[in-house]
Specification:
about 400 residues; alpha/beta; five-stranded mixed beta sheet; 10 helices; binds adenosine-5'-diphosphate; binds magnesium ion
Length: about 400
């Protein structure tokens, strides 16, 4: 079973809750297999980092997190150090446009000759075992993509260079880099650039030559379907996490076809079968399959089955989780549709609505009130399973 932090993506590792998006993921995989540079763009929190790190784990590639103070040379400096190449100051010389740079363009690169060596903080050259590591000293010019490319080739790095938060760089620096990016494409050094902007061909605006050397991948808009799939997964993980927090033993079913999302069990062989439904766009409203109206037709006894309805819409507080026994959910459509079901395969469980045709009737209660929904909010005891421990 996967660990919860892996599921929720607290670490930078690919997360189990990741939902592949047809359009976006396909384009990205295709771009990886081309020889072009990749630009991933879109507003904040729309999935740029999630997308890139799924295919190119950050710890296995050369990551540069940019800030408004980063200059092009800083970027290359970081790339080379991450690749195990040490840069020492050579002739001090600055580009007039790069007032913040702490070192000049003409420097010396120290390349470990037998590989595997590392450079200590004081500049002494050591290997892990303490024996002297041999380094080759090469004078280079950090301003020349050719030099950078050769160094990377020398140390055998074919890792991707990932530039996070490219939009932080000022326009002048972005433009400078756009020219280098083209050179790097010809030199076979591959970049993924991530940034917050909305317009297409952003890099090509700086350098027209880039047009057919980059692939632009917008992570927006989200299709309704992808969005719902993410909400569905988020709901499952939320319920699983609340259960584990309360000391229950759970098994996630990871989309297997047996029809239950989560099993909850204890040491006395009590088992509860949970299905999770989540809404991220309509408060207190879930779409349920028609079979929920007839809970006795299922192989598992109705009193062991629960529909967990998760409401992800609240913005200023935690989502709500209702633990409805199957029999309770079944009462809702019979009340709401007054016995006359539509032909469709699903029905809507909307806690706030009143039965069809009786919405104006005084004394006619809402579906939620009818099933006593408040009694099921966060009521995990309902499951009839004993928590193991905390
Ligand atoms: N395809 C996806 N499937 C599941 N969750 C996603 C997906 N894309 C993004 N997320 C989640 O949305 C949140 C924001 O995504 P992130 O990649 O950090 O956005 P950005 O880098 O564009 O600011 C993260 O918690 C991430 O796990
Ligand atoms: Mg990001």
């Amino acid at each position: 079973m996967p660990r919860l932090e892996e599921v929720f993506g607290v670490s930078a590792k690919p997360i189990r809750s990741y939902v592949e998006r047809d359009e976006v993921d396909t384009r990205f995989s295709e771009a990886l297999n081309s020889d072009k540079q990749i630009i991933v763009y879109g507003s904040s929190k729309q999935g740029k980092t999630a997308l890139v790190s799924k295919y190119l784990p950050y710890e296995k590639n050369l990551l540069v997190s940019l800030t408004p103070k980063t200059a092009v040379l800083d970027m290359y400096h970081t790339v080379l150090s991450s690749a195990g190449i040490r840069i020492t100051a050579g002739v001090t010389e600055k580009r007039s446009t790069e007032t913040n740079v702490g070192f000049g363009a003409k420097v010396k690169a120290l390349i470990p000759i037998f590989g595997g060596g590392e450079v200590s903080a004081e500049g002494g050259l050591k290997t892990g075992s303490g024996t002297e590591q041999q380094y080759e000293e090469i004078p280079i010019n950090l301003e020349l993509p050719q030099h950078i490319a050769e160094l990377l080739k020398r140390v055998g790095s074919n890792r991707w260079i990932i530039l996070e938060n490219f939009h932080y760089l000022n326009d002048e620096i972005q433009k400078q880099f756009a020219f280098d990016l083209r050179a790097f494409q010809e030199l076979g050094v591959r970049f993924v650039v991530l940034g917050v902007w909305r317009e297409k061909n952003r890099m090509a605006q700086f350098n027209g030559d880039l047009l057919d050397r980059v692939v632009d991948i917008p992570v927006e808009p989200w299709t309704e379907l992808d969005f719902r799939r993410v909400a569905a997964k988020a709901g499952e993980f939320l319920v699983a996490s609340r259960l584990t927090q309360r000391g229950y033993m759970v098994a996630l079913q990871w989309g297997t076809t047996i029809g239950y999302d989560i099993l909850v069990f204890d040491k006395k062989d009590d088992v509860a079968y949970l299905e999770v439904k989540a809404t991220a766009s309509h408060p207190q409203k879930w779409l349920l399959q028609k079979k929920y109206a007839t809970p006795n037709e299922d192989a598992i006894a109705a009193d062991r089955r629960f529909i967990c309805c998760v409401d992800l819409t609240p913005r200023d507080r935690e989502p709500d989780v209702y633990i409805f026994p199957a029999a309770v959910v079944a009462r809702a459509p019979h009340y709401f549709y007054t016995g006359r079901f539509s032909q469709s395969k699903s029905f809507v469980l909307a806690l706030n609505s009143k039965p069809r045709g009786r919405t104006q009737h005084e004394g006619c209660v809402s579906v939620g009130e009818y099933i006593g929904f408040q009694d099921y909010l966060e009521q995990f005891d309902m499951l009839g399973v004993v928590p193991v421990s905390r």
